[in-house]
Write a structure and sequence with these properties.
- Helix 1 runs antiparallel to helix 3.
- Helix content is 77%, strand content 0%.
- By secondary structure, it is an all-alpha fold.
């Protein structure tokens, strides 16, 4: 797969992930108790905490956006988006009860293609030539 094509697909997957995050977070903000019951999760009290988690998911998604626009320019942000998905996978699959594993699989669905496409698509970073040595000569 060519570099430009891999980056194009990385951006698409990233934006689909952002949309999926929003689709998950907004209902939790509006009606957390109904969504928790619908998902078959244990009740949460107070409902402030699921709402706060949804709010943080929305904010995290906003921080993914620069990488969705230009992953080469915002290389660190692009890798941070991949790292955040990895953190979600590790947190939900490695440290939470089985009932919460679907949230880890949700992140895994985006982690795998994003990591592969970004690794294939980003050009190697070239260190800038040192001008301090040249200016002394």
């Amino acid at each position: 797969m060519q570099t430009a094509s891999a980056l194009r697909w990385f951006k698409r997957v990233l934006w689909i992930g952002i949309a999926a995050n929003v689709a998950l977070a907004v209902p939790v903000l509006v009606a957390p108790d109904r969504l928790i019951a619908f998902a078959g999760l244990p009740p949460a009290m107070p409902l402030l905490w699921p709402r706060f988690a949804a709010w943080l998911l929305l904010l995290l998604s906003v921080f993914y956006m620069p990488a969705g626009i230009d992953p080469v320019r915002y290389r660190a942000t692009a890798w941070s988006a991949v790292g955040a998905r990895l953190a979600g996978v590790v947190f939900f699959l490695g440290f939470q009860a089985a009932v919460y594993r679907p949230m880890g699989y949700f992140d895994l669905v985006f982690l795998v293609p994003e990591a592969i496409l970004l690794a294939r698509g980003l050009p190697p970073r070239v260190a800038p030539a040192s001008t301090s040595q040249q200016s002394l000569a």
